[in-house]
Amino acid sequence: MKRFLNGKTKAVLALTVALAVALSLLAALGSGSAFPQQAVQGIMRPLRAAVNGLILQAEKIYSYIFRYDALEAENQALKAQIAELENDARTIDTLQRENQRLKDLTGLKEERTDFTLVGSYIITWDSNDWTSSFTIDKGEGSGIALDMVAITAQGEVVGVVSAVGPNWATVTTVLDSALEISANIASSGYAGMVQGAYTTGSEGMLRMDYLPTDAVIRNNDQVVTAGSTLYPRDLILGYVADAGFDESGVAKYALLTPAADFENLEQVFILTDYVNE
């Protein structure tokens, strides 16, 4: 409110007070003989008019300042309500996403009854042009150990536990160019090795190498794990986006779009036990 008491406003208020005092003095002077009283009344008429005008202006200023304070208070209350509604909306979105993950996880457990999974949330990411990893909020205390596989609720491969502590673990993702996974193209059975494609200039993609020269590779073909000491069979790695011959011209390769949505990844499930068929 102080910013409204500028020079002009202060001058109006000061002048109003000064004129009111002057009127009082003149009224006192004119309370004697008739001549001075008439002279004083002649002076007081325009002064009264000026004072009345100034009083009206002062009342308007006071009303404006009071109204501004009321509007400011109302504005702050509305901002608080909006912030609360936005927070409620974020909470609802989070609960909806978690509810969907639980539904997906229920379906996965029904399909793979041999899976033992530990749910965990991502705390921090540590990624650059050559590596891709993140830290989760569960560790040895929850039964997590090195080389355990991290997947989504849909059974999509996220990565492998590469470091572990009492209540935390680091997961190196499939986008990391140092991680190699034996895989098959689900529709045809063609076998190859999948790793992050950073080194080939295809950031955010996977590359499947060592495919047969005569392999027929179609876009959107699903690529799954072949099964090993680390990975169960048929976990989803990605989908074919492009294909071609490698540098030697002897074998084919395929570029894959990762199945896991790494940009929106919040929660992963660590596969602590399973039966590899």
What does this structure look like?
- There is one protein chain.
- With 277 residues, the chain is an alpha+beta fold.
- It has two domains: 1-111; 116-273, Beta Barrel (Thrombin, subunit H).
- It has helices at residues 7-29, 34-111; strands spanning 116-127, 132-136, 149-151, 157-164, 169-173, 181-185, 191-196, 206-211, 222-225, 236-245, 252-258, 267-273.
- The strands form two sheets. It has a six-stranded antiparallel beta barrel.
- The two termini are 76 Å apart.
- Residues 1-5 have low confidence and may be disordered.
Question: What's the helix and strand layout?
Answer:
Blueprint: H1 7-29, H2 34-111, E1 116-127, E2 132-136, E3 149-151, E4 157-164, E5 169-173, E6 181-185, E7 191-196, E8 206-211, E9 222-225, E10 236-245, E11 252-258, E12 267-273
Antiparallel strand pairs: 1-2, 1-12, 2-5, 3-4, 3-12, 4-5, 6-7, 6-9, 7-8, 8-11, 9-10, 10-11
Helix pairs in contact: 1-2
